[in-house]
Amino acid sequence: MMEDPITLEVMRNALYSIADEMTAGLVHASYSTNIKDRRDCSCAIYTLGGEVVAMSEWGGTPLHLGTMHSALHTALESFPAESLEPGDALILNTPYPAGPGHLNDVCIIGPVFVDGALFALAASQAHRVDVGGFAPGSMPFGVTEIFQEGLQITPLKIQKRGELDEHLLAFINQNLRTPHENRGDLLAQLAANHIAERRVQELATRYGTETLRDYLGAMLDYSERRMRAGLRRIPSGTFSAEDVMEGDGIVDGHVTLRVALTVGDGRITADFSASDPQTAGPLNCRWPSVAACVYYALKCIVDPDLPPNAGAYRPVEIITRPGTLLEAQFPAAVCNANIITTQRIVDTLLMALIQAIPERVLAACSGTMNLLNVGGFDPSDGTYFNYIETYGGGQGAMCDRDGMDAVQNHMTNTRNAPIEAIEAAYPLRVLRYELVPDSEGAGRFRGGSGLLRELEVLGSYTRLTLSSDRKEVTPWGVFGGQAASGSRCVVTGSSGVRRELPSKVTTWLEQGDRLLTATPGGGGWGDARMRDPRLVQRDVQDGLISPERARNVYGLGQAPGEK
Fold first, then answer.
1. Does pLDDT of 563 surpass 60?
2. Does the predicted TM-score (pTM) go above 0.85?
3. Within 10 A of 399 (CB to CB), how many other CB atoms are there?
4. Considering its fold, how many domains does the chain have in total?
């Protein structure tokens, strides 16, 4: 087929708009705060061969979008596409053998029929508030096997010809703490896939089924051409880097990730095989999560406007080694890899790429999604509640601009939960919510500031899981830029006794406890004493930098040569 570039662009935008509408529908129909307010979900459209054609960028998270294709392939091994009927829907959540990054990410897959014939596949992935297991939120520390993390759902048919399997749903709900929210979020995902089918049918009616099918393939080829062209603009060579995580919640000591990036002739290979062995605690990754990080980093750096789809991945090879942190073997625990390990994979990739194309890469961001899971009983009605949120931090500085303050970085694209939503939905009171002064990585261009939130626990029988990092080895700066401040979490009891928590812990909270969490800032770029004094003064006036730091680190008000 000789594709017309104008029609290609029309088709591309139409299909990406469908994926975005799927996500908007899912968000608006969902029950949990984690989805309806924080948008912890993603949607996409696939060919019958399982190649992703269009992914949602409105509210979609890179981690979901990069692992959904593996989940879809795993589901199709049990239920081949040709066996699906109109109104069917498949469900799965297990990372083994390949699928979502952890059990909380539930994937729903449905067929798209056009004129009575199977034409494509639609999928959505959303983070469930709870899927059972050792502790509320299903992402605990202290576990060593995936069996302890929650209910594992192998590919099953949750809906048959439009009829929801209530018996299967009842079985699933019996194994988790928040069945009402789970049911609502499931129905929202089913609705999202229905939106995809309806809109694809409309597109086929307008342009013709065969024309639409031809342009699905053309879109993949177009993205491949753009990715190869972008890779050719990177100097050829091998660029290596390593970074660390601060223990796995069971064993102290650093866990090291290593990558060697080899670039040449429009191709790139990311070799992670020298990374440390898999851990006892739940920081282990499976290959799909590693791939998601590589795809994300390359899109951002090689061609930010690149339409992300399976064609863009063709010039990319990813190597991991079985038994290591990034290709853990069953039944290794994995639940917190999404929160910490994937962020560190991106940091390691950036550290390698900055050697080749520094003008396109930024200093280290906060480096952790800084997850809080707080679950227990609501004394007002006796029901189980579970509050989950990942907290943003500082963005790393770039060669020509400061990093943003208190934003979600890299593999997450979720929003914050508004104070009003938290207090309306959970027995929690928000006491403070603010930026952290002096948390930025100083530099000619400074990193972003971390954020601080303090909660008061009003519920009973409450357990907390904190999943964080960058407490000791803080986000790094580049080219003379300084590292940012690290994370911290402190619980203050009603008696005033304070206890500082480790970065990875599952523990009990008492009614009346105050839980304060501060996230890391972002690393700086260049010598801090080269920063425009007017910008330093503005940050002092805004309360982001103290007068002492402005003088001692940035040299504000000092005479030339004064220390």
1. no
2. yes
3. 17
4. 2
